[in-house]
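A student in our group prepared the protein record below, which I am reviewing. I have pasted the whole thing underneath without changing anything:
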Amino acid sequence: MRTELSFAPLNEIETEWLAVLAADTQTAKGPDAKPEPLLLTADEAVKAAASVLSSGEFKAGANETLLLHAPAGLKAKRLLLIGLGKQATATLTSVRNAAGTAVRFTKPRGIRELAFALPDSEIPLPAGARATAEGAVVGDFDSDTYRSDRKDLSVNSFTAIAPASAEKSAVEAAFAEGAIIGESQNFARVLVNEPGNVLTPTEFGRRAAIMAEEVGLGWDISSTERLRTLKMGAFLSVTQGSEEPPALIVLKYEPEGVTDGPVLGLVGKGVTFDTGGISIKPADNMEKMKYDMAGGAAMLGAIRAIALLKPKVRVICIVCATENMPDGKAQKPGDVQTAMSGKTIEIINTDAEGRLVLADGITYAKQLGATHLIDAATLTGAVAVALGQINAGVFSNDDETFGKFNNGLAASGEKFWRLPLGDEYAEQIKSDIGDIKNTGGRYGGAITAAEFLKVFAEDTPWLHLDIAGLAWNDENKPFIAKGPTGVAVRSIVEWVRSY
C-alpha cells in the first residue's frame, strides 16, 4: 500500500473515499443522556456534509462507522465517518485503530484509494500522523495467503490529510516513521502466518538474511555445528528431535559514528513448530503452534524498523530457531542439559522448550557485548490465564530498564502489564539433581518461566516479554484482521529509541 501525506483543504480532495474522525463529547450521565458526536475537523464543508450527526444515527463509538454517498459540497465521492469513542478518553491508540478501521472497511467494497483526515483537535500532531500511518498499514494485512481463490483487496493508496496549519516537516517525518513501523510489524506478521512446512528454521534464517541485506544490517546465520562449538546445550537439546536443522540468526545494527554507550540485545524465541516434544500437546489447536516463533518474528520486525529509523545506539538481534518434535532422538523428561552459561537444567517437561532456546540466546547476546537485554516469546499459556487477551506480560530485573519500556507504551499503543519476580518464585525451579528445573509447577507458571530466564540474564538489565496471549487474534477486529498480530514490534522499537 502506498502511503502519502497531503496538506490540501478537505473539500478540494478528489477521492473515492474520504474518512473523517468524530468523538462523542457527551458529558451528561443517566438513562436519558444522548451521545453528542463532534467531527474532529475545522472544515465547514465537511461539517455541512455530515449534518446527519444531529440525527442520533451515528454515536461516534470506538471504531463505529457511517458511510455517506455523494456528500454535498465535497469533491470526494463518499464520506466515511469513524468514531473514536468518548472525547475525554481518546488517545493515539484510538486514532491508530480508526485508521485501521478505515482501511478494513474499504477493502471488501472494491475501493482502492482512501483519504483520511488527520484530526485537528484532541490528538496532537505529529504523533497522530505517525499513529495513523501505523494503523493504516497494519489494517491492510490479511492472512488468507494460500487460498486458491484469493482476491487481492489491498488498498493501493492511503493519503493522510493534515491541517494546513500543521508543522509540515515534523508531520511528514512522523508519518514516514509510522509507515516504516507498520510495515515492519506486517513483516513479522507475514513470518508468523507461514505454515510450519514452509517456514522451517532454515527458511526463517534465509528470510532474515534477505531482510538484513535490504535494510543494511550485518548478519550471520549458522546451524548445528556452530551451536556445538558455542556449547549451546540448552538450545541443542530442543533441536534433537527434529529432522530440520536449527538456525542461529544474528543481526547487527551499528550506526555510523557510534562506538561507545549501551549495546542493546534483542533475543527472540523462534520455535517454528511446537508439538511439545515427548510431553506432546493435545491435538486440539495444535495447528496454531506454527506461531510459536512470534517472539523471534517480533525481534526481526523491530530490528528492521530500527535499521530504517536509524537511532544512535548499537543493537544486536539473536533469534534461536528450531522445531520441537517427538522423534526417537528427542530429549526426554528427566534429562539434564548443560546450557552455554554452564548452568545445568533438569528437563521436567519437554513442552517448556522456549525458555531453553532463550537461555542460550541470552548468554550469547551478552558474549557478543550486549549491556541491556530484552527477550520476546510466546512462552506460557499461564500468562494468558493471568492477564487474558488484553495485556501481554512484562518482567524485569531492573526498574530503570522497565521504566524506559513502560514510558514507550503511550506511543506504541500496546498493552503490557508488569508481573512480579522474587526469591519465593525462584525456589520453585530449583532442581534436586541439577541447578534448575525447566518448569516450576502449576502455579505462577509465567513467573517461574521468567525466573528461569533471569538466571541467565544475571545482573545485566533485562526485560522479558511473554506475548503468548496476544500474538494471535482468534477473531477479526474492526481495525486488524484475524490471525497474527505482530505484537511487541512497536514497543521494542520505542524501547530501543529511548537509548
About this structure: Residues 2-182 form a domain with the Leucine Aminopeptidase, subunit E; domain 1 fold (CATH 3.40.220.10). The first helix runs from residue 44 to 49. The chain is about 35% helix and 20% strand. The first strand starts at residue 2 and ends at 6.
